[in-house]
Amino acid sequence: MRPGRGVLGRGLRVGLVVAGAPALPWAALLLPAGAIMLGRGVGGGTARSFLRFCGYLIGGTVLVGVLTGLVLAGGLSLAARVLTGTRGLSVAGALLAGMVFPAEIAAVAAATDVGPLEFLTTFLLWPVMMVVAGLHSADIVGRTRRRAWLWAPWPGAGVRRWRRV
Length: 165
What we know:
Layout: H1 7-40, H2 44-82, H3 86-111, H4 116-124, H5 126-141, H6 148-151
């Protein structure tokens, strides 16, 4: 296996985790609340707005996760050419994730109608997600293999395609 192969996939996986973890509790609250309210016929406008905000939250979070993954993969690939140890890569990965994370704060704020609790908790998770990205940076570029979930093949990666006879 060539060095650097699969960096994009591993970067996207970490990017989706970094962006998805802060939004998951709010989506887990909005979706059932909207579905239950809509199912019971109570508060139709509120239920539809909950479901709409949940869609905004999931869509925005996935977009920010892909952006974070692309930035992590590209930035760490370039940093790996200069930095020889894993500590420097960890710092670089944390800084790269920290630069993109305000987009996740904006996505959560827009999807939750700038709720103070949602905004504050997402803002406070900023340094935590920087640490998460920093801890996985050496695995993203392939220097270490400590995180098995980053090295597992994609579902269906080994599946053969049907050929016409």
